[in-house]
Every structure is written in structure tokens, then in C-alpha cells.
Write a structure and sequence with these properties.
The protein has ten helices and six strands. It is α+β, with helices and mostly antiparallel strands. It folds into two domains: about 150 residues, no CATH class; about 40 residues, no CATH class. Strands 1-2-6-3 form a four-stranded antiparallel beta sheet, with helices on both faces. Strand 4 and strand 5 form a beta hairpin. The chain is globular, with a radius of gyration of 20 Å. The mean pLDDT is about 90.
């Protein structure tokens, strides 16, 4: 039965135009900082992981264009996630829950908005879609680092795809050297605070600092603050959601770009 389910699910995923996909059993998935899958989805047995190629937009020095490429991908991936989950529930009579590329995710001082309920990176590795590079991102054998993942959890019992045995990272160090915040200096760890200062300059930290200063300022200074370009960018970030203003670790990685 599981082979038939895997074949039908795979055929449907390929029809969505997704670049690649893999399957991991819930027991093969391990994420050191995320909660147990059973606390999110009691009865979960398998994870279907979808892989999408990041657009060349990430090469642009214009951050509006670069971020828009990511937003396009996120919108497409949400649609694919929902369609797959609906297929599993309607056609295969399963239960399914979707896990997005990024937000919503737990926001707290403890997690700093950097720990997902379900880690798509660890799910991708468990599903045989790649392995971790020096930048702590997953490297896909064909797409390299320019790949984003979503997950659909299901109570269908489907066997895992085999892991990729060889390490794909060539340890060139380009990602470490190109990180403006030095967030990758310590191997095996990404310093989230150093990353966020550059990657999300209009995120929650900037928001808190702006409004704290605003509350303590005189009326004339408040008027200047609201007319400043920084506030306009802060406003846009608040309207759109998380915005990434650094794609260096994706665009400098040579794997898959030859």
C-alpha cells in the first residue's frame, strides 16, 4: 500500500511544477531545537518535503527586487503546500498539515524568531534532498544552496527516501567571508543576532528601538522621525512581514552554479 501511496503522491507533486521532493518518516526527522512532531500533529507518520529553486532575483543588489523574488516563491510554495495537503486528504483519505517556508513561526525572546515549529531544513536532509553546508543551510545536489523547502505532514505511513551519502559542501569558505555580520565565524553555528542585524534591519529590534526613542522625544523630533526614510522602510516591513535584506550566503555559494 505504501508504494502505491508514494507513487500517487509523487505524481501529484510533480504535476505542481515543484523542482524536487522527498519523503521522510517522522522517526527519521530530528531537529535539535524544535518541539516533538507528535506535540504538533498526534499520529503523524511521514513528512513530504517539497524543494523550490530560488530565483536569480537573489543576485540583485536592489533589495526590493531580491525580496520580491522570495515573496513570489513563498506565494507559489503556499499554493503547492495547500494543493498537496488537499490531495492527500481528499484522494488518499489521510490527514495532512502544512509547514510554510517561513512565517508564521514562534516569536519570543527565547527563540528570537529563528526556531521553527517544524524545521524544513532538517526535514529536507531526512528526506534525502541534500545535506548541511558550512553556512548551515541545506545544499541540494543540483540546485546547490539556492533552494527553499516546505513540508506537508501526514498520517500516511510512507518510507523515507535514502539520504545523500556524500557531503556536498566543498568548504570553500565563500559564505563565511561574505557574511557582513560575521554570523558564520563559528563552524556549525549561525549567530542569529549577528545575522538579523543585517538580514532584517527593519525587524522587531529596529521596531522596538524606533518606538522607544519616539515615545521619549519631543513633538518636533517625532515629526522628523516620521518623515525620515527609515520610518517609511519600517512601515513597509510591518505591512509585508519578514523582509530579508541579505542573500549573500545563497548567492556566493558555488555549488550548483557551475
Amino acid at each position: 500500500m505504501s508504494d502505491d501511496v508514494k507513487e500517487r503522491a509523487g505524481e501529484f507533486v510533480r504535476s505542481l511544477g515543484v523542482e524536487d521532493f522527498g519523503i521522510a518518516t517522522a522517526s527519521d526527522y530530528r531537529s535539535p531545537r524544535s518541539p516533538e512532531l507528535s506535540s504538533i500533529f498526534p499520529g503523524v507518520k511521514s513528512l513530504v518535503v517539497l524543494a523550490y529553486k530560488e530565483l536569480s532575483s537573489c543576485d540583485s543588489e536592489n533589495m526590493q527586487i531580491a525580496m520580491n523574488g522570495r515573496l513570489d516563491l513563498m506565494e507559489f510554495s503556499r499554493s503547492c503546500n495547500y494543493k498537496l495537503a488537499r490531495f492527500l486528504e481528499r484522494e488518499l483519505k489521510a490527514r495532512a498539515m502544512t509547514v510554510p517556508v517561513s512565517y508564521p513561526l514562534p516569536m519570543s525572546r527565547e527563540t528570537l524568531g529563528a526556531v521553527a515549529d517544524v524545521s524544513a531544513r532538517h526535514a529536507a536532509v531526512a528526506a534525502g534532498l541534500g545535506n548541511f553546508g558550512r553556512h548551515n543551510l541545506v545544499i541540494h545536489p543540483e540546485m546547490g544552496t539556492r533552494v527553499i523547502f516546505t513540508v506537508v505532514m501526514t498520517d500516511l505511513e510512507i518510507p523515507s527516501d535514502p539520504p545523500i551519502p556524500e557531503r556536498l559542501c566543498n568548504d570553500c569558505g565563500d559564505c563565511v567571508e561574505s557574511c557582513p555580520g560575521g554570523a558564520l565565524d563559528e563552524e556549525g553555528r549561525t549567530d542569529v543576532l549577528k545575522c538579523l542585524r543585517h538580514n532584517q534591519p527593519y525587524g522587531i529590534g529596529a521596531n522596538i528601538r524606533f518606538w522607544s526613542k519616539f515615545a521619549e522625544s519631543a513633538v518636533e523630533e517625532q515629526q522628523k522621525m516620521l518623515a525620515d526614510d527609515f520610518y517609511w522602510k519600517l512601515y513597509q516591513a510591518g505591512s509585508i512581514g519578514f523582509q530579508y535584506f541579505c542573500f549573500n550566503c545563497l548567492k556566493v555559494c558555488p555549488i550548483g552554479q557551475e
